[in-house]
Amino acid sequence: LNILRTGNTIRQTALKLNMNIFDVAGIAYGLVVLGIIKRIEEKLPEREEFEQNKTEPKGLIRRFFGRNKPDA
Fold first, then answer.
1. pLDDT tens, 57-71?
2. What's the CA gap between 3 and 12, in Å, rounded?
3. Distance, CA of 2 to CA of 17 (rounded, Å)
4. Cβ contacts of 62 within 8 Å, gap of 6 or more
5. Span 2-55, pLDDT tens digits
6. Within a domain: residue 72?
7. Which domain holds residue 43?
């Protein structure tokens, strides 16, 4: 990834690292996706609001779980 950051293409990076182009592209893609996921997790203040505002399940879900409760 550092070699790619210097402005080299995926092909140039693959040649420098003696790797397949598809391997370098897969690694770069995976690292970019991980970075995006990390940024999204940091920017989710509404996530806390969602957890605070959880309510009891209604309607069909309540009926389904109400019928399937194990006998105590």
1. 566 665 666 665 555
2. 9
3. 12
4. 56
5. 777 788 888 898 899 899 989 988 888 888 888 887 877 776 666 666 666 666
6. no
7. 2-67
